[in-house]
Specification:
About 40% of the residues lie in helices and about 25% in strands. It has a domain of about 130 residues. The chain starts with a helix and ends in a 5-residue tail after the last strand.
Length: about 200
């Protein structure tokens, strides 16, 4: 009886049933599996590329936000300053600035703590120093460059802002960083020194 069932399965009628769509052959299953694997490979590659693009965009945005926050704080302090000193570290490069103002507390003298602040970049970070600081303090990370350009009340560039400090009315500030992926981000802004504009 069992042999009769096996013999019946191999008959032409059974082969027609398979061909009529009532089942799949091994070759059809292998072809379908191969196509599915190719499609899954393509989808996986698209997902990986999307993640790489997202990571690069996120790093760029973080770098841009870091530069924007740094620039905003330096510009605010320069705008509030009553006295701006160019190149306080004396290296001859306009990559540092000292701002002094009567802002803590407002009492007519500028010798109180936190009323003088110096900024510069060490090539990797924005550093700051106040008279009450025991050592240099990191103000912002991943800051490769900091450049200051000084102008007088006629908006003419001051050739030697160290000797012409009393003429400084405007300061152009450029901050540069590099995102982890290597993209450079530079932002600039300008600030009018209070009482001189």
């Amino acid at each position: 009886m069992a042999l009769a069932n096996v013999a019946r399965a191999r008959t032409p009628a059974r082969r027609r049933a398979v061909a009529d769509g009532r089942g799949f052959t091994l070759i059809e299953l292998l072809v379908t599996s191969a196509i599915t694997l190719v499609i899954l490979g393509i989808v996986a590659q698209i997902v990986v590329q999307s993640n790489n693009v997202y990571r690069a965009q996120r790093q760029f945005m973080e770098a841009r936000d870091n530069v924007a926050a740094t620039l905003d704080m330096v510009v605010r302090l320069v705008r509030m300053a009553e006295v701006v000193s160019a190149d306080p570290d004396g290296d001859g490069i306009m990559n540092s600035i000292r701002a002094q103002a009567d802002w803590n507390p407002r009492n007519g003298v500028t010798t109180d703590p936190y009323e003088t602040i110096t900024f510069w970049s060490d090539g990797q970070r924005l550093m700051k120093r106040e008279p009450s600081d025991a050592a240099d303090v990191e103000f912002a990370e991943r800051i490769q460059g900091l450049t200051f350009t000084y102008f007088d009340t006629n908006n003419a560039a001051i050739a030697n802002p160290v000797t012409g400090a009393s003429r400084i009315a405007y300061v152009n500030i450029a901050v540069q960083t590099t995102a982890i992926g290597g993209t450079s981000v530079t932002m600039t802004s300008a600030a009018a020194v209070r009482g001189r504009e």
